[in-house]
Amino acid sequence: MKKHLKWIIPVVVLVLVVCVFGYLKLFAWNPERQKLAQINARTISVAQFGRELEKIPSPYKEMLQEEPKQFLDQLVLQEILLQEAERQGVKSDANAKPEEKDSSQIQNLLKKEVIDNVKVNKEEIEILYKEHQSKMGKKRLDEVAPVLEELIRDAKGKEKVEEYITSLREKAKVEIDESRLKGVTGHQKREAAAG
Fold this sequence. Notes:
The protein has helices spanning 2-28, 46-54, 60-66, 68-88, 101-113, 122-131, 141-171, 178-194; strands at 35-39, 42-45, 174-176. It is mostly helical. It has one domain (7-89, 115-194): Triger factor/SurA peptide-binding fold, CATH 1.10.4030.10. Strands 2-1-3 form a 3-stranded antiparallel beta sheet. α3 (60-66) packs across α4 (68-88), α4 packs across α5 and α6 packs across α7 (141-171). The longest helix is centred in the last third of the chain and has 31 residues, at 141-171. The N and C termini lie far apart (56 Å).
């Protein structure tokens, strides 16, 4: 019995060490499984954050590494908009390249929900014309009305898009792991310095 205990105890300890190390490697140390942000039911992992950051050209990448929260906020906002587009059944354009599908889907959502609903009336055009008539030379209102209408539509559209995005952001359940975010960016800075 004592002979068996001499080799059973080290084997059990070794198995436990291997199991703990395996768990840590697969789950705790795996960037794919490390949650950086939770947006409603979806997660942005440390690995996903790193992949998205790698797509950014220098010197912008270095700036974002200095301010990682700003970049993560952009990713969170993108995820919120994609979730809303999916909820509403909004698709990307059929001819969009694979790397442009998300942007296309978001643009289509904003067009459907905001841009297509922006109205410009004649009074707004006339007011803008009167305010800037001296800059238009001798052109009559009917000549510049289409351009003025587009300017007003763009300005109103930007404002409405910001309001829409803010309302979606307020409704979303977002959790960010600030300590992990600091750790991720510190690791990336060390990698950049070494590479």
